[in-house]
Amino acid sequence: MRAVIQNTVGEPDVLVIANQPDPTPKAGEVLVRVKAAGINPVDGAVRAGYFPLLGEPPFILGWDISGSVEALGAGVTSFKIGDEVFGMPRFPKQAAAYAELAAVPADEIALKPKGADHIQTGALPLAGLTAWQGLVRHGALKSGQRVLVHAAAGGVGHLAVQIAKARGAYVIATASPNKLDFVRKLGADEVIDYTKGDFTSQISDIDLVLEPVGGDHADRSLKVIKRGGVLVSLLNVNDTTKAQASTHDIRVERMSVVPDREALLELGQLIDAGKLVVHVAKSFPLEQAGAAQAFLATKPIGKVVLTV
Ligand SMILES: NC(=O)c1ccc[n+]([C@@H]2O[C@H](COP(=O)([O-])OP(=O)(O)OC[C@H]3O[C@@H](n4cnc5c(N)ncnc54)[C@H](OP(=O)(O)O)[C@@H]3O)[C@@H](O)[C@H]2O)c1
After folding, report:
1. 148: CATH
2. Closest residue (by CA) to atom 8 of ligand 1?
3. How many whole angstroms from its chain centre is CA 194?
4. Is the distance from the beta carbon of residue 128 to the nearest atom of ligand 1 less than 6 Å?
5. Residue 147 is part of which domain span?
């Protein structure tokens, strides 16, 4: 098979196409013929060596997979050959999604919803599972709550706005000025241009904040959360922030996304119900993985995907 490998950490040009042995599915695994593989910020961080999740190169990046079942490992009864599937297998271990074929655990993928194409479902898993797990599992979101989604035009944020709306929340979203219309169209009830003034002076009484930005965002977000509310952070939260949260009776959850078949099915149902649309800013052919990662770093609206 062809795959994108890297032999050293570095700039996007370390990503090169190479012939690799076809993977063989072990017991409990399926072999997926990859049609699309999503790009996420973590891919670039691992590529560059800032976040050495996969140890030393050589390795194959990528966790988001959408494709069709090519072969079944021993004992797999949940899928048949030809089924169209998607998922975020093995994260944070190597899934090797930037490739023509990937062998993945059958219980970490799900049938692809019919209401989206492979490019969209290839873009969905990691960002969608993060938004779902952040809001529903860590945040225990309830209908009628006031939710603040930061970075609402990004990969995670644009899905989080729609998931929160679908679950009956009142959604306030932050983004830069040229992205506010997009976020409004996703269904956000209020949008805040974070480049014009501090969001802490514009809102209050928030039940749940989803925080993917970092810096002082966690600290500032505490100011707008009501007692008994929750801050779900995708990035590290320091001890001072945690102590301050506890003084105000605010729960802090620092989450790391995990494979989650049940949530994939929920995301698929939202898509088929017309309540969730994956916005893909641009797709690139597999051999342009480096250019695709560089494009994601320019903060396009929504997601970036490789087509295989
Ligand atoms: N812990 C986990 O499990 C987990 C899972 C997924 C992602 N993450 C992390 O979460 C972050 C976001 O991921 P992503 O896939 O959504 O990235 P993305 O698609 O690159 O989106 C990032 C967004 O942040 C926005 N942004 C930057 N500064 C902002 C600010 N001060 N206020 C509001 N928005 C701001 C950018 O747009 P504008 O600035 O132009 O509005 C951009 O849309 C990344 O750091 C990623 O590594 C963590």
Report:
1. 3.40.50.720
2. 234
3. 22
4. no
5. 127-254
